[in-house]
Automatic annotation (TrEMBL):
Keywords: Hydrolase. It comes from the Bacteria. Transmembrane segments: none annotated. The keyword Hydrolase applies. It holds the Pfam family Abhydrolase_6. PANTHER family: AB HYDROLASE-1 DOMAIN-CONTAINING PROTEIN-RELATED, ESTERASE_LIPASE_THIOESTERASE DOMAIN-CONTAINING PROTEIN. InterPro entries: AB_hydrolase_1, AB_hydrolase_fold, Sec-Metab_Biosynth_Hydrolase. GO terms for molecular function: hydrolase activity. Residues 6-226 form the AB hydrolase-1 domain. This is Alpha/beta hydrolase.
Amino acid sequence: MSSPTVVLVHGAFADAASFAPVTRLLLDRGFRVHVPAVPNRSLLGDSAYIRSVVEEIDGPVLLVGHSYGGAVITVAGVAENVVGLVYFSGYALDEGESLGQLQGGFPDSDLAANLIYTPFPVDGGEPGTDVSVNIDAFPEIFAAGVDREVAEVLAVSQRPLAALAFGEPAPVAAWKVKPAWGVVSAADRTINPDVERFGYERAGFRSVIELDAPHLVMRSHPDEVVTVITDAIADLG
């Protein structure tokens, strides 16, 4: 098999730039990389969009999802040319399960008390609700471990997630038919690390490692993240 294109899928309250250090390292090592912008409007819509991006790529694809991006690749990963899935601080949903259901089985993280809910217009329908992180709390909770000045920029440029996405059940679970690898961010204050551990163990991932890392592990530990990705590529043969 030819080396797959690595598609990096960001999560909520972030954008494609959250993968910038990892993207640079992968490009420097000669890998083909694509980092699409996730709309963050609904799990089903976001997954359909990422799947459409993947299916336009010639050749095999390794899907890498961070945080909410893990839920997105769980659904989008059934695309025929996806050969593997890698989760970082991610939600590995089961078929028929929503983000809220998976997260609800564990104590709240520090994030829950620091979320802001804001209406946004929807053409021809009732307003939607955007969920974002309180800007003042963002550096300590969502961007812990990141340079403070960088964290402040990430806080004011965060990409909200529509509340709708929390309640939508995943129609499929790609990890049931594709090999998967996972990283638990043991110092995560955004997602309870037990949510990550539970999802990965239930799915029977090929490999799960724990890093003493915060939620934005690809910012705080880019070398380790790249090693996990390249090891997964090597494992695929």
